[in-house]
Specification:
Helix content is about 50%, strand content about 10%. By secondary structure, it is mainly alpha-helical. It is globular and about 70 Å long. The termini are far apart. Residues about 20-30 and about 540-590 have low confidence and may be disordered. Helix 3 (about 45-70) packs parallel to helix 18 (about 430-445) and helix 17 (about 415-425) runs parallel beside helix 19. Bound molecules: 1-deoxymannojirimycin.
Length: about 600
């Protein structure tokens, strides 16, 4: 790993220049500058503006082609210039059917990117098309997680942008607008509720049929991110319409996952059964299957301000660093391999795989939000090295064999996202250069006849005829925002937060107002509690941080139990990872 990835050291050093100015142990910019240092040290204003315009062109090439060849279908086939909808003939084709539902997905997902590009006219036109033509009353069985982040998040974001009286993106409001997008959001979310109602633990079934609810014989295994990344959108919807049921359902799912953490390590697995609460996949990592669960603990706190979400994030983040981080302890000094986060066994923290996946590239962005800047720079540098090697990120990269394990690249945004967030946080022109590399390789490697195409294999750069909706909603958006330094989002960055699908939401005081006692809604009913306890008899071990933040009050409020009595019966729990004061537990009797 050291030799091939040693390039990441160079990138790391370059990236640390402005961040560590005057503080870090080393400074590699000694004059005269080398050729590489000269390249990364600055970027001309003309070049930045050219990159911004090129990114704009990239978006419109994809968007206009979608509108011309694919709309009202869900996605564009960018090679054969046609549209794609659900595969109704083959219900088991979940690669397609989990996401596409015959609801003009790409158009809805792209709404706030149009606003961010300053195209108020096209935004209003698109809003009209959505309101007049899209219905969620469809016989489509889709993933709750995907429909939540791509559709619900997009509808809420567009509605809130329209409602913003300051109009930072121009006049987005069609004159006849009367909250129709919010009504659609509410209708869509109501179709998700059977996923929660039908489960024995409170964790949502992974899929619902939009018309019929949870299909007979539906699979009960869900990834952790799928069950635990709903709180941002559900919380905003609940607060907008004054109905706590959505926030309650999402909070309860998070609470259940929290109770299911491994008693020894405190880690979560990547797949869980919604009826038994048993872990089906015991892999713990920061990429596929778990990524947005961590992200939404932090983002829910940023948005709604509940200390409990922050405690959960902090506790989890500490454990991630404790169990998953490998390599030298300090990123920019000392000896050893470049740090990376590996996938581990949730039961003991042992390394389980020798690959990292491209979704993990978003973790650097989470580290920026968490304020762990040196580590964010370090994480990002590793992915940049891999990006440079292939021109894109393979879906999985084997860090032991230094080669891809899974070859495709479906135009994912994660690496662009963390590049943008790092530039916002550091203002280091290094990241503009990274953005230029990304833009260049997307144009060189993925541009097809009428849009941008998924790379089938990073080894031979063959293409697949698919442009996922997140290309317009995230990849193009983050790249544009990276170069458009004067964009209203960047000038008021303290006023906005991105969902995991890149939709912007306002950080507004009204979202932080307590309209109901959310703690009460996070309780789990007795039947569900019994199921969870069976799955994890040591569940209370993992509640230490909640008890510490609201000592004695939390459990009394949700269950009526006098917690001081309950706590006096506890005994110390001796697993590693549970050495914080106050982590006492006893097993439940079954
Ligand atoms: C997007 O839909 C979201 O970013 C999600 O959180 C993860 N996967 C895709 C993009 O890769």
């Amino acid at each position: 790993m050291v030799s091939t990835l040693s390039l990441s050291l160079v990138f790391l050093h370059l990236a640390l220049q402005s961040f560590c100015y005057g503080e870090c142990a080393f400074n590699i910019f000694r004059y005269p500058l080398t050729r590489v240092e000269r390249k990364y040290a600055s970027i001309s204003e003309n070049e930045r503006l050219r990159l911004k315009e090129d990114t704009r062109d990239m978006f419109y090439f994809g968007y206009d082609s979608y509108m011309k060849y694919a709309y009202p279908k869900d996605e564009l086939n960018p090679i054969y210039c046609s549209g794609r909808g659900p595969d109704y003939d083959n219900p088991s084709n979940i690669n397609i059917n989990d996401i596409l539902g015959d609801y003009s997905l790409t158009l809805i997902d792209a709404l706030d990117t149009l606003a961010i590009l300053g195209d108020a006219e096209e935004f209003r036109k698109a809003v009209k098309l959505v309101i007049e033509n899209v219905s969620f009353d469809k016989n489509s069985t889709v993933q709750v997680f995907e429909a939540n982040i791509r559709l619900l998040g997009a509808l809420l974001s567009a509605h809130l942008l329209i409602q913003d009286e300051n109009k930072p993106f121009g006049d987005l409001e069609p004159e006849w607008y009367d909250g129709e997008l919010l009504e659609m959001a509410s209708d869509l979310a109501s179709r998700f509720l059977p996923a929660f109602d039908n489960s024995k633990t409170g964790l949502p079934y992974p899929r619902v049929n939009l018309r019929e609810g949870v299909p007979e014989g539906s699979r009960t295994d869900t990834c952790t991110a799928g069950a635990g990344s709903l709180l941002v959108e559900f919380g905003v919807l609940s607060r907008l319409i004054g109905d706590p049921v959505y926030e309650m359902s999402a909070r309860r799912a998070n609470k259940v996952l929290w109770k299911l953490r491994n008693s020894k390590t405190g880690l979560l697995g990547n797949v869980v059964d919604v009826n038994t609460g048993k872990w089906v996949g015991e892999l713990s990592g920061v990429g596929a299957g778990l990524d947005s669960f961590y992200e939404y603990l932090l983002k829910a706190y940023i948005l709604f301000g509940h200390p409990e979400d922050f405690s959960m994030f902090n506790e989890t983040y500490t454990l991630i660093k404790q169990y998953m981080r490998r390599g030298r302890p300090h990123c920019n000094s000392g000896s050893g391999d470049h740090p990376l986060y590996v996938n581990v066994d949730m039961k003991n923290g042992g390394t389980q795989t020798t690959w990292i996946d491209s979704l993990q590239a978003a973790f650097a962005g989470i580290q920026v939000l968490a304020g762990d800047m040196e580590e964010a720079i370090c994480t990002h540098a590793l992915y940049y090295t891999i990006w440079r090697k292939y021109g894109v990120l393979p879906e999985r990269f084997n860090w032991q064999r230094i080669s891809p394990d899974v070859m495709f690249y479906p135009l994912r945004p994660e690496f662009v996202e963390s590049t943008y967030l790092l530039y916002q946080a550091t203002r280091n022109p290094f990241y503009l250069h990274v953005g230029r590399d990304i833009l260049t390789s997307l144009n060189n490697l993925t541009k097809a006849q009428c849009g941008y195409a998924t790379i089938h294999s990073v080894l031979d750069m063959t293409l697949e005829d698919r442009m996922e909706s997140f290309f317009l909603s995230e990849t193009c958006k983050y790249l544009y925002l990276l170069f458009d330094v004067d964009n209203p989002v960047n000038l008021n960055s303290q006023r906005y937060m991105f969902t995991t699908e890149g939709h912007i939401l306002p950080l507004a005081p009204w979202l932080r107002q307590q309209t109901w006692d959310t703690d009460l809604f996070s309780s789990v009913d007795p039947v569900m509690q019994a199921n969870i306890s069976q799955a994890n008899p040591w569940e209370n071990c993992s509640l230490s941080s909640q008890r510490e933040t609201t000592p004695g009050v939390y459990l009394e409020r949700v269950s009526g139990v006098n917690t001081s009595a309950a706590q006096s019966e506890t005994r110390p729990h001796g697993g590693s990872g549970s050495d914080q004061p106050g982590c006492y537990c006893r097993p439940h009797s079954n």
